[in-house]
Each structure stands twice: as C-alpha cells, then as structure tokens.
Amino acid sequence: MKTVGIVAFAFGIPKTILSNQRISKIASQKARELGAPVYTQRDIYVGSGIEVKYTDEKTGSPPPTLRIARDAVQWAKQQGFRELWIVAAKPHLWRCVRDLTQSVREAKTYVAIRVCKEIDEFPEEEWYCSDSTQPRARSRKNWQARERILKLLPFFIYKLVAS
Predict the structure, then answer these.
(1) pTM confidence score
(2) pLDDT (tens digit per residue) in 21-72
(3) Which residues have C-beta within 8 Å of that of residue 61, sequence separation ≥ 6?
(4) Is the preceding peptide bond at 14 cis, omega within 30 degrees of 0?
(5) What whole-number distance in Å separates Cα of residue 45 and Cα of residue 158?
(6) What tens digit of pLDDT does each residue of 140-153 get?
(7) Which residue range is the domain that position 98 belongs to?
(8) pLDDT(1) > 80
(9) Which is nearest to 53 in space by CA: 34, 63, 40, 62?
(10) What whole-number distance in Å separates Cα of residue 3 and Cα of residue 52?
(11) Which CATH number do you get for residue 79?
C-alpha cells in the first residue's frame, strides 16, 4: 500500500505558462522518485504513467487554495497516506503549507506535510508569468496586493472567504 502522495498547486493559468511547467516537472519527478500518485489541478500536466487525481473545478474558475488543500487531505485520508509532498510556486508556498496543515487538523487525522526542495532552485521573481491569464500571478506587485490581505486575516475569517 502506498503511504505517500504529492499535491501540486498551479500558479496561474494555463498549463503552458512557465510556472505551471515547472510545477508539473517537479511533481512528476517527485512522483516517480517516491512511486506516489499526484493530486492536482487541470493546469498541471503530470507525466505519463503517473497516477493522478484532479480536483473538481469549473473551466476558467480555478478552485481556492484552501478547497484544494481540504480535498487533498480527504484524498490522502481515503488512500491511507501518512505523508503529502507539496509542489507549488515559491510565492504561493506559505499559503499552501498553511492550508494543508490546517486541513489536516480539521480532518482530525495525521498526515505529515513535506515541501519539495526543488522549488528553491528558482528565485521567487521567476515564478511570475506575464502571459498568465490570471492577473494575480503575472507579477510580484499583483500577487502581493492580494497576499498581504490574506496573510493578515485570522484563519477563521480566511476560511469564510476562501471556501
């Protein structure tokens, strides 16, 4: 029985932008290395031969990070995973870790959260893509305008906004 899963969070839209290509590559490499399945979004391409579960989403409306985290934890719980490895863009990473950690607590389960070190191979500035159709992922300025608010919100309010 597999005990490890990978959770890959997209950073912008579509799958062809550089940030999502990097996330796809790191997630696929880690999945092969660990023999693990991947839980992700439509804008992440997972290499052939790797088991993948896609989160439910509507075209043009990516799900919030918290919803992906909650669904990933439920997936991990159903699969009996004891460990989840996160793949996300560096600017998005703090929230992915926080949301997955909180989702584990909400689910009253134990799943260790790990971060793929390969994320650090790219400076934060290189994760933004001006060709993303999602304006917040185009530049540090756009991203920070939103993230500052999300960092300051108490989690119980964030849950209401992000669910």
Answers:
(1) 0.95
(2) 999 999 999 999 999 999 999 999 999 999 999 999 987 778 999 999 999 9
(3) none
(4) yes
(5) 29
(6) 999 999 999 999 99
(7) 4-162
(8) no
(9) 40
(10) 15
(11) 3.40.50
The predicted pLDDT at position 35 comes to 97
- pLDDT for position 2: 86
User: In the structure encoding, which two tokens stand for residue 67, read together?
Assistant: 């919803």
**Range 66-70 contact pairs with CB under 8 angstroms and sequence separation of 24 or more:** 66/99, 66/102, 66/103, 66/158, 66/159, 66/162, 66/163, 67/162, 67/163, 68/7, 68/9, 68/39, 68/41, 68/99, 69/7, 69/96, 69/99, 69/100, 69/102, 69/103, 70/99, 70/103, 70/106, 70/107
100: tokens are 């997955």
Judged by DSSP in three states, 145 sits in: helix
- Report the domain count for the chain: 1
Q: What is the mean pLDDT of the chain?
A: 95
CB neighbours of residue 93 within 10 Å: 20
The two tokens of residue 87 are 């793949």
